């Protein structure tokens, strides 16, 4: 059995895989909670508890708040709030794996927008083919909720904004940016959750433990593991592995929620993953070429 401590690259791959499984398992947990609590309540509490946990992990008190560029933090937090709420609204209507696949179009679009390689048209074509295969045209009883699709695409758009906002200088470290951004996102969603009605029993210990678990699975654990993994992974390896998220989400939906996908939809996930991996590879190659010149 290999000693992972002596193989930092392999250890990083394992940690990143655990992070992705944790993130997509949190989607399955959120879908279970949606049957019992309002979606906005789940979204707001996840960001609140997640920001508090990350504040402790990343020692938020060490921030020099005078250096914080709040414009960047606020835009980042608003994108995070939209991505979080719209994704939970989507999985209430369509299977988890399909929701993640539609949402993944957001970061894929950002990557394709910045790529300038001759293979770009192939990745665009694969992404379009994957989207087409997601729709079960021949099986009326398996039709997808159009509003669920719209919510997932909206979450993907917010994910794209989240990526662009996260690249702006915020005056603090990336970890502190995530923590502050989650708190801003919570401030965006909490008034809506309170206005729509937040059940008092969510704060009962028997229920609150599930929201804490959601915050850990969706935020604290994956962000911490990704931070460790990135120390020993190239951007190419990281981006390629993250492309597996739709498949992991589909498996999570199958295992925890007993969601069944058509063979064409499994094929669609494979096509979208291939497009994302290819895009990541060519984008990295282009970056390496520019750096050499």
UniProtKB/TrEMBL annotation:
Cleaved signal peptide residues: none
A matching Pfam family: EamA
InterPro entries in the record: AA-Vitamin_Transporters, EamA_dom, EmrE-like
Keyword Methyltransferase tagged: no
TM stretches of this protein: 40-61, 73-91, 97-114, 121-140, 146-165, 177-196, 208-228, 235-257, 263-283
Entry keywords, A to Z: Membrane, Transmembrane, Transmembrane helix
Residue ranges constituting the EamA domain according to the UniProt record: 11-134, 147-277
Gene Ontology cellular component terms for the protein in this record: membrane
Bilayer topology term: Multi-pass membrane protein
Subcellular compartments: Membrane
PANTHER family, A to Z: EAMA DOMAIN-CONTAINING PROTEIN, INNER MEMBRANE TRANSPORTER
Similarity section: Belongs to the EamA transporter family.
Protein name: EamA family transporter
Organism: Acinetobacter tianfuensis
